[in-house]
Each structure stands twice: as structure tokens, then as C-alpha cells.
């Protein structure tokens, strides 16, 4: 078994400070460093293979395994590293509460957006200032900046849909207000994030507009859109007064079935992964890879 010492963070490294965006500067340096090392290792691979005594299939196989299963995932690592920042960049619980507490059972069409939109826009403006301040001493590439905004928008839009689903009663005019709010939000966020158009909009728009689908169209929508949780779909169906109670129960069963199948598939996948490539913790505090 190969043993690797568990890495330990530097004592002076602060990853829980919101004013420093959870160590965004250090994260950027770390990701860039790993990316640089990975690119250099890819360049020297032919030389490394040429130095292996011939024939030695075991060493070549281990080397190939390293490049295939370890080095190849370094580009994906940035999503996890920067995702830790994006998932805490805004107070998403507050956003969900602000959206769900908005009155959606209005009886008249509204001409002005809801208050929660201003809360979100203010949060993005503050985040933009924090990004500039936290990265003033390092180079922040356009790709990393785009990734940060992309992940933050993704989490924000998920919070939006969750808030809509927890909003209780909703009229046709209330659904129109949701559309008005979201359109105004897009207009405000595009210049802040410098993304045109904003990503992940279809996730929110799809949930809002599904309210207007006829009964047969809603059945197809429920079975196809697995990105929404059963609770979110149940909430949507509960406010769709044009859908019969019998049809709603059928749709809910279909949704739960699809969700259960997906969960089972994911569980089987991770179980297989843990069986074929287990990572265990030794008694001496080291990670052991068989």
C-alpha cells in the first residue's frame, strides 16, 4: 500500500473569513500552482516513460494510472475549490426567506418588481467589491472570474426556485410577478457579472412557466425535468388550479419514481466507486490507498 501524509493547512491561512471571500486569493494561487505542475508533468511524460527499464509493465501501468485517474481531474478541481467560495458568497437562506415571504396570491398585475430583487442585486454588488478587494494583489483571470460568477448565479437561482416553491398560494398574476422580478433581476445582474446572457436562466424560467402548462403538457414536463426536487414539483402542482386532483397525484407519483430511480443509480455508482477504489484512514492519521 502507498501511504500519503494527510495535508495540513497553514496556521495563518484563514478560509472562514467572509470579508476575504474565504481565502479566494490563496485558493487562486493554489489552483494555479497545481495546474502549472500538472502541465509540466504532462510535458515530461514521454521522457519519464523512456526512463522506465524495459520491459516493466507494472511501472508503466502505474504511471498510466496516475496520468489517467489523478492528473486528468486537475481541471475539474477548480470547480470544487471555487465552489466553496460561491456557495457561501451570499446569504442564500435569507434569499429563500425573502422570496417565500413575498405575497404571490395578488389579484392584479404588478408594474414594479418585488423587494427581494433589490436584496439580491445589492448582494451581488457587494460581492463584486469583495472580489476586487480580495484579489488586488494577484492576477484574477477572466476564466476564474467567469467561473466564480457562474457558480454564484447557479446557487442564487436555485435559492430563487426554492423560495418560489415555499411561497404558498400563487395566482396567475403572482406568477406574472415572478416573471417580472426575474426579468428585472437579469437586467441588473448582467452588467455586474459581465455575462451576457446570464447562465442557468432556463432553470428559473422553466419552473415559473410550467405553471401555465395544460394538464397533459404538465405531465410530460414533470417526467422530463429531473432537476427539480419532488417537493418543488408538489408545490408547483398545488397552486396549479387548472389541474385535477387525480392528475396531480399521478404526476407526484411519477416524479417520486424518477427521483428514486436517480437516487438509486447515484447510490450504486458511488458504491461501485468506493469498492473499486476505496480510500481509507489509517490509525496513524494517514490516508491509505490499496
From TrEMBL:
GO terms for cellular component: cytosol; EARP complex. It comes from the Eukaryota. Residues 271-290 are annotated as: Disordered. Residues 271-280 have a biased composition (Polar residues). GO terms for biological process: endocytic recycling; retrograde transport, endosome to Golgi. Pfam families: Syndetin_C (PF10474). Residues 21-250 form the Syndetin C-terminal domain. GO terms for molecular function: SNARE binding. This is Syndetin C-terminal domain-containing protein.
